[in-house]
From TrEMBL:
Domain (GspD-like N0) ranges: 110-180
Annotated Gene Ontology cellular component terms: cell outer membrane; type II protein secretion system complex
Polar residues compositional bias, start-end: 353-363
Residue ranges of domain NolW-like in the record: 195-255, 262-322, 328-459
Protein name stated in the entry: Type II secretion system protein GspD
Chief subcellular location: membrane
Family: Belongs to the bacterial secretin family. GSP D subfamily.
Gene3D superfamilies the record matches: 3.30.1370.120, 3.55.50.30
Gene that encodes it: gspD
Length: 721
C-alpha cells in the first residue's frame, strides 16, 4: 500500500474528487453483505453500479444520502455528521461553547476555531478537566479542532497531546501536574491547515488510518493511538471533508469484527485486478474486492486479517503488468507553477540523455503544453487528462529519434534510465498539472523529483524605512564615523568581507533588534531626521517586490526639425521617467532561516537643467544596489550616500533692487552655505513559513498602526491556574 501511495501521491486532487465514488461503492457492498452474504459476482455488480453513479457525482451533491439508505438506516445524524458532502458542522455547533462536559460528567466535547494555544490549554485543563497545568510562555500558535462526538477524558488528554505536538509543543505529567513546553523540533501546520477528531465505534483505529491514507491527500497527517477509538486528522479542509465522508461509511455496525484495507494500484487496472481476485477467492465469502476506478484502487473487506493480507500479497503480484509499456500519468502540482517544474524536469531529462549518449530533443518541445480540446480513451491503469493527448502526438517521432540510444543501451546490457526518447513531461496550464508519459519505474523516479520540487514557498514580509539625516558639526564626517568613534556596538562592513556586498560606493551596518531603533533615537537627539517613506511589503520567496512612491516626469530624449522647411516645428520625443522613492527587493530563503536580499534602492527628484540647452528637467538621483544575507527578523541599515545642496541668497537695497535691469546694480548674490544630508535605509525581513508566523506578524503590524506596543513575537501571556 505504501508503494501504491507513492505512485499516486501526485494525483491527490483526483483522489479527493473520487471519495464520493468510494462511499457509494462501499454502501452497495454492505447492502449486499447484509442480504446476500458473499456472492461470487459481487465485485462485478458493485463495479457496474460505481461506473454509473460514480461518474455522475459532483462536489456539491451530498453523496451520503444514498449511502445511508443502503446501510439500512445508519445515517449521518446518528454519528453526529450534518452534511457529509461538505463535512460542515451545523451553525449551532460552531456558535456553541468551546469546550463542555457531557451530562454524565465523563465525556468532553471540543469546538475551537483559530483559538490561541494558551487559551485552548486554559479552557481544557482549568474549566473542563479540572487539572493543574503549567504552560511555557514560548508556546504559541492557533488551533482549530472539533470533536464530532464527545470523547472520554482520557481520550481528550491524548487529543490535546497530538494538538500540541502539531504546534511545536509537548505535553508531560509529573507529580499530578501537566507541563506544556516548547518542543525542540515541533511540526507546524501549513497555511490553511485545520484539525478534526473522528471517534470510532466499530472499526479499529490502525486499520482506519491505513485505509484513509490515500484519501487524506499528500499533506495530511493522521494520528492514532494503538487500541484507541478515535483518529486525529490534520490537513487541508478538502482533505478533511473526504476523510469524514469515507469514515462515515466505514464505521458502521456491519463492519464490527471485519478487516478491511484500501489498496491503490500502481500499474494494473482496478477492474481487472478485482476480477482476478474474485476468481481466486471464489464464493467462500472470506474476501470481497470492490474496484474504485476513479481512484484506481481496491477496497478489500475480509472476515479475518489473514484474508486481507493474503489478498494484498496477490495484489502485489498482479499489479506488475505492463512494466515495459509507457503510460500516461498526471501529477496535480500544489504549490508551484507547473511550467516551472516542467522546465526543470526537461532540463534534467536532456542532461540525462546527453550523458547516456542518446539523442536529445529540443527542450521547448515539451516545456509547456497549451490547452487542447480532444477526447480519447486512456490506457488502463493510467490517469489521463484528455486535453493533453494532442500534445504528445509527436511521441512516436521521439521514439524513432531515440531508437539509436535504446539500441546502444541494449548493447551495453540495459536501457538508459530517464532518457528523453522514453520520458516526456508537459505542463497543463489550465489545471496546473504535470503530464508525464513514461514507463512505471521511470515515472517513480520522476515523481520523487516532482515531490521535492513541489514545496510550499515561504513568504517574506519586508519592512523598510527610508530617511535622511542632516549632517551637522557632530556628524560632519557622516554617520559611519559617528558609529565608529562613539563605540555604539554596530558592526561595520566593507564590500570585500563577504558578508555584505554593495555594488554602489557606500557602506552597510548590521543591527540586532532593537539596537537599530536605539541608534536612531540617538541620532534624532543631535540632528534632524526626515522620514521619506516607510513601506511594508509581503513577497514570495525568489520573487521581486517593487515599491514606487513619486511622480512620472516627462523627459525629452530627442528633438527633430525638417531641413527643407525652416518654418517647420520642432518635434520632441518624450519619455516618462519614474522619480521619487523606488525600492525593489528579491528575497531568497534557505532551510536555516537565512534570508539573502537583493536590494535596489533609488531616491530621485527633479531639478532645473543647468548643463544643457534642451528644455527638459534633470533627474538627480541616489541609488544603492546591494546583496545582503541576514537572519530572519534582523534589521540592517544601508547608508553612506551623502548629498550636498547649496543655499544661495539675494540681497540688495530695498525698492532699488527691484527695478528692472538697473536693479542688478543694487543687488548682490551670496552663498549662505551648503546643506549636507545622508540617506539611510533600514530593512527588516521576517520569514513567514506557516500560518502561525503570518498571524503573529499581522498582529504586530496592527499593534503598530494602532499606536500600541508590539508584543514580542513568539511570547504569549502565561496562563494562570
Amino acid at each position: 500500500m505504501a508503494a501504491g501511495r507513492r505512485s499516486r501521491a501526485g494525483t491527490s486532487a483526483v483522489m479527493r474528487n473520487s471519495h464520493g465514488a468510494l462511499v457509494i461503492a462501499f454502501s452497495v457492498l454492505l447492502a449486499a453483505c447484509a442480504t446476500d452474504g458473499a456472492g461470487p459476482d459481487s465485485a462485478e455488480a458493485d463495479t457496474g453500479f460505481l461506473g454509473s453513479a460514480g461518474a455522475s457525482l459532483t462536489a456539491g451533491r451530498p453523496a451520503s444520502r444514498g449511502a445511508s439508505a443502503a446501510l439500512g438506516g445508519h445515517g449521518d445524524r446518528r454519528r453526529g455528521y450534518t452534511d457529509l458532502a461538505t463535512a460542515s458542522l451545523s451553525r449551532a455547533a460552531e456558535a456553541g461553547p468551546r469546550a463542555s462536559l457531557g451530562d454524565d460528567g465523563r465525556t468532553v466535547s471540543l469546538n475551537f476555531v483559530d483559538a490561541d494555544v494558551q487559551e485552548f490549554v486554559r479552557i481544557v485543563f482549568d474549566e473542563v478537566l479540572k487539572e493543574s497545568a503549567i504552560v511555557d510562555p514560548g508556546v504559541s500558535g492557533k488551533i482549530t479542532v472539533r470533536t464530532v462526538q464527545p470523547v472520554s477524558k482520557a481520550s481528550a488528554v491524548e487529543l490535546v497531546r497530538n494538538v500540541l505536538q502539531m504546534n511545536g509543543a509537548s505535553l508531560t505529567r509529573s507529580n499530578g501536574v501537566y507541563r506544556i513546553e516548547k518542543a525542540a523540533e515541533g511540526r507546524r501546520g501549513k497555511l490553511g491547515d485545520a484539525m478534526r477528531v473522528f471517534p470510532l465505534q466499530h472499526i479499529d483505529a490502525d486499520q482506519a488510518r491505513s485505509a484513509i491514507q490515500s484519501v487524506a491527500g499528500q499533506g495530511a497527517e493522521i494520528f492514532s493511538n494503538k487500541g484507541g477509538r478515535f483518529l486525529v486528522v490534520s490537513g487541508a479542509p478538502a482533505d478533511l471533508n473526504a476523510v469524514e465522508q469515507v469514515l462515515a461509511s466505514l464505521d458502521v455496525d456491519q463492519m464490527a469484527g471485519m478487516s478491511f484495507a484500501l489498496v491503490p494500484l500502481q500499474d494494473g487496472g482496478a477492474q481487472a485486478v478485482a476480477g482476478e481476485l474474485t476468481q481466486m477467492f471464489g464464493q467462500s465469502g472470506a474476501l470481497k474486492a470492490v474496484p474504485i476506478q476513479r481512484m484506481n484502487a481496491l477496497l478489500l473487506i475480509g472476515r479475518t486479517p489473514a484474508a486481507v493480507e493474503r489478498a494484498k500479497a496477490w495484489i502485489r503480484r498482479l499489479d506488475q503488468a505492463g512494466q515495459d509499456e509507457r503510460k500516461v500519468f498526471v501529477y496535480a502540482v500544489q504549490n508551484r507553477r507547473a511550467q516551472e517544474i516542467a522546465k526543470v524536469l526537461n532540463g534534467m531529462l536532456g542532461a540525462s540523455s546527453a550523458r547516456s549518449g542518446g539523442s536529445q530533443e529540443p527542450a521547448s518541445r515539451t516545456a509547456v503544453a497549451p490547452t487542447v480540446k480532444t477526447t480519447s480513451a486512456s490506457t488502463d491503469g493510467g490517469f489521463v487528462n484528455p486535453r493533453v493527448d494532442q500534445v504528445f502526438a509527436d511521441v512516436s517521432e521521439g521514439d524513432a529519434e531515440g531508437s539509436s540510444a535504446a539500441a546502444a543501451g541494449a548493447a551495453s546490457g540495459g536501457r538508459s534510465p530517464l532518457s528523453r526518447g522514453e520520458v516526456a513531461v508537459s505542463a497543463d496550464l489550465s489545471t496546473n498539472s504535470l503530464v508525464v508519459i513514461a514507463r512505471p519505474d521511470d515515472y517513480r523516479l520522476v515523481e520523487a523529483a516532482i515531490r521535492r520540487l513541489d514545496v510550499q514557498p515561504a513568504q517574506v514580509i519586508i519592512e523598510a524605512t527610508i530617511f535622511e539625516v542632516q549632517l551637522n558639526d557632530t556628524l560632519r564626517h557622516g554617520v559611519r564615523w559617528f558609529f565608529e568613534q562613539g563605540n555604539h556596538g554596530a558592526i561595520l562592513t566593507d564590500a570585500n568581507n563577504g558578508s555584505l556586498g554593495p555594488t554602489y560606493p557606500g557602506f552597510n551596518y548590521i543591527f540586532q533588534v532593537p539596537k537599530a531603533r536605539i541608534v536612531l533615537n540617538a541620532l534624532e537627539s543631535m540632528t534632524r531626521l526626515e522620514v521619506i517613506s516607510s513601506p511594508a511589503l509581503t513577497v514570495l520567496d525568489n520573487q521581486t517586490a517593487t515599491l514606487k512612491v513619486g511622480d512620472q516626469v516627462p523627459i525629452a530624449t530627442r528633438s527633430a526639425q525638417s531641413t527643407t522647411n525652416p518654418d517647420a516645428p520642432i518635434v520632441n520625443d518624450i519619455e516618462l521617467k519614474d522619480t521619487g522613492v523606488i525600492l525593489s527587493v528579491t528575497p531568497r530563503v534557505n532551510a536555516g532561516g537565512l534570508v539573502q536580499l537583493d536590494i535596489s534602492q533609488e531616491v530621485s527628484d527633479v531639478v532645473e537643467t543647468t548643463t544643457s540647452s534642451i528644455n527638459s528637467p534633470t533627474i538627480r538621483q541616489r541609488s544603492v544596489n546591494s546583496s545582503v544575507a541576514v537572519q530572519s527578523g534582523t534589521e540592517i541599515i544601508l547608508g553612506g550616500l551623502i548629498s550636498r545642496r547649496s543655499e544661495t541668497g539675494r540681497s540688495g537695497l530695498p525698492l532699488l533692487k527691484d527695478i528692472p535691469v538697473l536693479g542688478e546694480a543694487f543687488t548682490s548674490n551670496a552663498t549662505r552655505g551648503q546643506a549636507r544630508n545622508e540617506l539611510l535605509i533600514i530593512i527588516r525581513p521576517v520569514v513567514m513559513s506557516n500560518q502561525t508566523d503570518v498571524l503573529a506578524v499581522t498582529q504586530e503590524i496592527k499593534a503598530r498602526m494602532q499606536g500600541l506596543p508590539a508584543p514580542a513575537r513568539g511570547n504569549v501571556v502565561k496562563a494562570k491556574y
